[in-house]
Amino acid sequence: MKIQLLSAVGKLFFSCLFFCLFIESTTFAQAPQTTISDYVIFGGTATVLPGQTAPPSPGYGVQIASFCFFNQGTIQGTVGSYKLVKTTGDVTINGNIYSGGTIQLANSNEVKGNLAAGISPTGVPGTVVSIG
Q: What pTM, to 2 d.p., does this model score?
């Protein structure tokens, strides 16, 4: 009787442990859910609308050059795009960078936030984050 009770308690314990780990792993595996008002800069479109022609490669996205001055030389807030976020020079971003495709950062960039790339529902082949 004592062995059966311990066995039942053990099964219950491991079932609860597995359930908690499963819930935690699915919570962290999800892409961040944001709205357009969460961004200070957002570019691109999820799909090309009828009557539009997509721009040549790299296509829709956000490209930030050197010496872009947003609020004393820094970008304050989240930057995002459906396809590409790219910098070509010294940029400081006090916020997150989210891209459904790729993130390409030049040397001497400072990002004080999270990076999330390749969060497209269809997936992105190859390197999704390139720095330097």
A: 0.69
Q: How far is CA 34 from CA 30, 37, 39, 106, in A?
A: 12, 8, 9, 25
Q: Of 105, 96, 94, 102, whose CA–CA distance to 119 is shortest?
A: 102
Q: How far apart are CA 86 and CA 63, in angstroms?
A: 5
pLDDT digit of tens for each residue in the chain (132 aa)?
445 544 554 454 545 445 554 454 444 445 568 888 999 999 988 778 888 888 887 778 999 887 666 666 688 899 999 889 999 888 889 999 999 889 999 988 899 999 999 877 777 888 899 998
103: tokens are 């993130």
